[in-house]
TrEMBL record:
The keyword Methyltransferase applies. Keywords: Methyltransferase, Transferase. GO terms for biological process: methylation. GO terms for molecular function: methyltransferase activity. InterPro entries: Methyltransf_25, SAM-dependent_MTases_sf. This is Methyltransferase family protein. Residues 66-155 form the Methyltransferase domain.
Length: 243
């Protein structure tokens, strides 16, 4: 089992040796079957014009010293670097960090967010469902507190997610058949496959805005809805509340 399936795929694509797609599998809460999808690797190397409006807006709002959390191939961080900003890309994938270095990203950090204790930043950037790194609903508080510990005074968090309730079956009244258990419907299981190599399954979280707003308030953040995307997604900005 390849622990860095994403990194391997990114390396291959950068070197022109891919050809095979990166396949993702998602299992919804309460379901046994996996939902299969393909992610074109070129999408992970997109430039500013190829990014969704939500990502473009987030990049425009970045200021000061920036930490791009889950930086992947470095597309967001490289855009900011080209604009003259002081940006660091943080990712737990060794392959992703290697590719971002080869693409010219000057500042990089190989680590999981929970283990990272770098300097403080004016902007924390978490895109492509950045809230997913929390993993589970029960980890959101610790996740937000970790982010707060990395913020400089007056700093901000720019983060996106989606409300995936639309993926559940509808009932006769137009509602959704969400499993009757104690697990939030946005908690899913993910795994990735590339060239026959499969990652270990991992927890991933999609959080509706109201739930993010509630968690932010509980952790002493002011939560602002910046914009909605075209497919149930949104961009939010969190700023620590004054004591």
């Amino acid at each position: 089992m390849n622990k860095d399936v994403l990194g391997t795929a990114l390396r291959d694509h950068f070197k022109g040796n891919s050809g095979d797609p990166l396949i993702t599998y998602m299992k919804l809460n309460g379901y046994e079957e996996w939902i299969e999808d393909e992610m074109p690797l070129e999408y992970l190397f997109r430039d500013f014009n190829g990014m969704p409006v939500i990502e473009q807006r987030a990049l425009e709002l970045c200021r000061g010293k920036v930490l791009d959390i889950g930086s992947g191939a470095g597309s967001h961080a490289l855009y900011l670097q080209e604009k003259g900003m002081d940006v660091t890309g943080l990712d737990q994938s060794r392959g992703a960090i290697a590719v971002s270095r080869l693409r010219g990203l000057k500042k990089r950090a190989l680590a999981e967010l929970k283990d990272y204790n770098g300097t403080n930043f004016d902007t924390l950037l978490l895109l492509m469902n950045g809230i997913g790194l929390a993993g589970r609903m029960e980890e959101v508080d610790a996740f937000l507190q970790k982010l707060k510990s990395l913020l400089a005074p007056g700093g901000q968090i720019l983060i996106d997610s989606s409300d995936i309730i639309y993926m559940y079956e509808e009932d006769v009244d137009g509602g959704f058949l969400v499993p009757d258990n104690d697990i939030y419907y946005g908690e899913v299981i993910f795994k990735m496959e590339y060239k026959g190599q499969e990652s270990a399954p991992f927890h991933w979280l999609y959080l509706d805005f109201r739930s993010l707003e509630k968690a932010a308030k509980a952790n002493r953040f002011i939560c602002e809805l910046v914009s909605y995307g075209e497919h149930y997604d949104y961009l939010a900005r969190l700023i620590p509340a004054e004591d």
